[in-house]
């Protein structure tokens, strides 16, 4: 399948930490045999980055002719994906994008357009899915069945960071205890 990946966060030379989870998803899709192209922002703080993303979405869609567009974040990436391509769009809501829609009428209106034109919307948690179900944010949100992730992805994204956090907390706690005891 030909997939166009659209995101306002993607690791780049000047911001290697930006949107690493999107790069991981891209890697996983490619490993499963999909052909990918991307229209992404890989820098922080540039004033015209979203205008550049809009141009890149339209250009990549025309050149690559994707079967589906996979956009991360509802606005601006999701909005640009649904407006700049003809292929079905799958959106992923990450959290801050939904919070922004709750606070701003303009973002809420843009979110309604993005979600209304999307073929599917993925929420990264049940809590967030509940926020998306509010009619003032996204009246046409479609629920999709929960997909069990690849066990290796689950280990890398959940288990390892959790174990590392526990180890760090335990180590810092032990150091503080020993320092106070002396």
Explain what you see.
This protein has helices at 20-31, 49-64, 74-84, 96-103, 105-117, 126-132, 151-181, and strands at 2-7, 35-40, 68-72, 89-93, 120-123. Helices cover 54% and strands 14% of the residues. Helix 3 (74-84) links the parallel strand 3 and strand 4 (89-93). It has 182 residues and is an alpha/beta fold. Helix 3 (74-84) crosses helix 5. The relative contact order is 0.11. It folds into 2 domains: 2-147, Glycogen Phosphorylase B (Rossmann fold), CATH 3.40.50; 150-182. The chain is built from 7 helices and 5 strands.
What is the correct CATH architecture of the largest domain?
3-Layer(aba) Sandwich
Structural class: alpha/beta
Major sheet size, sense and barrel closure: 5 strands, parallel
The share of residues in helices is: 40-55%
Mean pLDDT: 83
How much of the sequence lies in strands comes to 5-15%
> What is the CATH superfamily of the largest domain?
Glycogen Phosphorylase B
How would you describe this structure in keywords?
182 residues; alpha/beta; Rossmann fold; 2 domains; 5-stranded parallel beta sheet; 54% helix; 14% strand; globular
Annotate the secondary structure layout.
Layout: E1 2-7, H1 20-31, E2 35-40, H2 49-64, E3 68-72, H3 74-84, E4 89-93, H4 96-103, H5 105-117, E5 120-123, H6 126-132, H7 151-181
Parallel strand pairs: 1-2, 1-3, 3-4, 4-5
Helix pairs in contact: 2-3, 3-5, 4-5
In short:
With 182 residues, the protein is of the alpha/beta class.
